[in-house]
Specification:
Elements: E1 14-16, E2 19-21, E3 28-33, E4 38-44, H1 48-61, H2 67-70, H3 73-89, H4 91-102, H5 106-124, E5 134-135, E6 141-149, E7 152-156, H6 162-176, E8 179-183, H7 190-202, E9 209-211, H8 216-225, E10 231-235, H9 238-250, E11 255-259, E12 265-268, H10 274-286, E13 298-302, H11 306-318, H12 338-353, E14 357-360, E15 375-378, H13 385-388, E16 395-401, H14 404-411, E17 419-423, H15 427-436, E18 441-444, E19 463-464, H16 471-474, E20 477-485
Parallel strand pairs: 7-8, 7-10, 8-9, 10-11, 12-13, 12-17, 13-16, 15-16, 17-18
Antiparallel strand pairs: 1-2, 3-4, 5-6, 6-20, 11-19, 14-15
Helix pairs in contact: 1-8, 3-5, 3-6, 3-7, 4-5, 5-6, 10-11
Length: about 475
Amino acid sequence: MAHRSNPPIKYTKLFINNEFVDAVSKKTFPVLNPATGKKIADIAEADKEDVNKAVAAAKAAFERNSEWRTMSPASRGELILKLADLMKRDKEYLAALESLDNGKTYKNALHDVGFSIDVLKYYAGYCDKIHGSTIPSDGNFMTMTIKEPVGVVGQIIPWNYPLGMVAWKWAPALATGCTVVLKPAEQTPLTALVLAALAKEAGFPKGVVNVLPGYGPTAGGAIVQHPGINKVAFTGSTEVGNKIMEGVGQSNLKRVSLELGGKSPLVIFDDVDVDRAVEIAYGACFSNHGQNCCAGSRTYVQAGIYDEFVKKAAEKAKRTKVGDPFAEDTVQGPQVNQEMLDKVLRLIESGKKEGAHLQTGGCRKGNEGYFVEPTVFSDVKDDMTIAREEIFGPVQSILKFETLEEVIKRANDTTYGLAAGGLTNNITTALAYAKSVRAGSVWVNCYHAFSPQAPFGGFKQSGIGRELGEEGLKEYLELKTVSIKV
């Protein structure tokens, strides 16, 4: 292949009914390299008419006697496994393209490809294990339940894990027998288009998978409003999640699953090894350049170790190598675009103005690309903007606490509830915290402990429904009850 940092751009068009096609309007939009701010390619821009075409293809593929609907569950699983194998074959190209388009380091992109393959393999194994039950009902009846695919699914994914989010969305949808119209984020559509080509190569029938790059208000809005779509799955901001709920209510009451924003607490008790706690907290906050919906961006540290933790956390952040995502020693690449750079810098300024103590960072790094210095604030109060708003950048806010009861109340004082972490060597403390914190995932003595088998999703305004695990299948299934008079 070409040099890793310059992968060829093979696909720039919409993928509808197993073909790459221009947008009906012939419009395109530019995709930029966040490390340089320069254009990578012009991509076909989907709009309402393109969504109509894709939904028609997906509906045809979902017809009762179609190739896809009459395929055995085991054969469906084999197709998903074939897609996973093709991704493994092309993993270096996929990782290079992801890094170029998104700005994440190449080694992190390689990890994302690997996890995506694992998710596909996990759900491939479920294809022939989705079954209902028989129920001993009153009277002379035989009653059973049947689980059926929900139908045509619209899927709208974010830019922070472009390739991973395709796998999280496609795998359970395809395992259950749905057909898919996917809109990748306009900032990062390149790997989704490659996966579309690989799905065709794997042998998925026409119309089962469709990929429409475009903008949220137009292409995304058309998916949400389309009466031919039976469910919409979205990962992104809570603000957009609210709009999707409104749109669904105004259209056909399609089913919805939402994985939204977070402001996750990581609570560090004073019985832990400080150096290890600093490492875990660093990963929790700065992973993927802070562009992570479950980032542990509120770091609560117990008073007994607070000063030592702050000092070591600042030193750790200061040592971070920021720069070219393809360089072997780079730990942090750029933010995804100018808009996110501006947002992160604005929130950093609010921290300074509101009285938080800037320990390190706090500025843009360099003049080219969208790089931010890893930033650490201490003496942060719960009512400060940096402790309330989702920053989505490399900013760690360190808050002090005294007791377990106090910190549980403070940790839960948020509209979000996606994730939470706790570091302690006391099993009673760990269990009390895990039981009391209001979050969909709680990680004890670790953070970001994802696996394909473990359900993921949020409480409160962090979302509706779950992805991954057996729970993830339920979002794509309808339950039918059949009663037969005997």
